[in-house]
From TrEMBL:
Family listed: Belongs to the archaeal/bacterial/fungal opsin family.
Protein name: Opsin-1
Subcellular location: Membrane
InterPro entries associated with the record: Arc/bac/fun_rhodopsins, Rhodopsin_retinal_BS
Organism listed in the record: Paraphoma chrysanthemicola
Keyword Membrane in record: yes
Molecular function GO labels: monoatomic ion channel activity; photoreceptor activity
Keyword Transmembrane helix: yes
CDD domains recorded: 7tm_Opsin-1_euk
Main subcellular localisation: membrane
Residues annotated as transmembrane: 50-71, 77-96, 157-175, 187-208, 220-242, 254-274
GO BP annotation list: phototransduction
Amino acid sequence: MIVDAFEEVLKKTSLIPVPTSHPSHVAPIPSVLPTPIDAQFIGDSGKKTLWVVFVLMLIASAGFTALSWRVPLSKRLYHTITTMITIFAALSYFAMATGHGISVQKITIREQHDHVPDTFQEVHRQVFWARYVDWSLTTPLLILDLGLLAGMSGGHIFMAIVADLIMVLTGLFAALGEEGTPQKWGWYTIACIAYLFVVWHLALNGGANATAKGPKLRGFFVSIAAYTLILWTAYPIVWGLADGSRKIGVDGEVIAYAVLDVLAKGVFGAWLLITHANLRESDVELNGFWANGLNRDGAVRLGEDDGA
């Protein structure tokens, strides 16, 4: 009887929960979510576009070189400048296509709320700084081509090139600028003002000098200069939509710039050289060191007395 009573007590007490060091029911702990990251990187279409433009710039460089063989060295100034433009562009696109000349800009976007804590989002977007290196080399050469075609003075060409370099470099500073600060759009504004100086020099001084060289050359200069300036006006628009406000993705940015570069460099160069071949007023002939090197008149003489 005692054993049966003891077993009955054990059965009843086994249903009582045994206290433990950890509570069985814990109130939910609010989770801390990590800051979401929006990674904006180039995709397959953008990479293919970079390779296509690289090949197109190589083909253009080879074609411009072949055209230069048809004229004497003293008349190859346009050919040399234009070939350098497409070679620099090809090097830039090769760098970008192989993953070089690219940095990642980290941007923190703060979203303010009235009744809950503010939220933050990180944006990691690729910036192709190799493109700005390309522009700092090729756009001055494009201005030199147009300045020589119009017969502009060296002083005006120099000032237009300086304004152009300011435009490109401040565009790079703006692309790498911190989000939400006035400096970013301040650099962009400076770049736009510098661009207006480039337009002013080419339109005013270039147009006046081209007019003095005859109606045929003036008509050609006005056409090719207007074509160039229209394309150049599209560059800051693409920048504002891409690096500026990020309204378009990296692939869209790459494709837009690629189309503009092909038109502003490859098509520009072909148009200039083909028309130049049939337009005598556009000739710029360089002799002396350019064509003949250091001849007897220009050679440095060593071992001679100064007449003292």
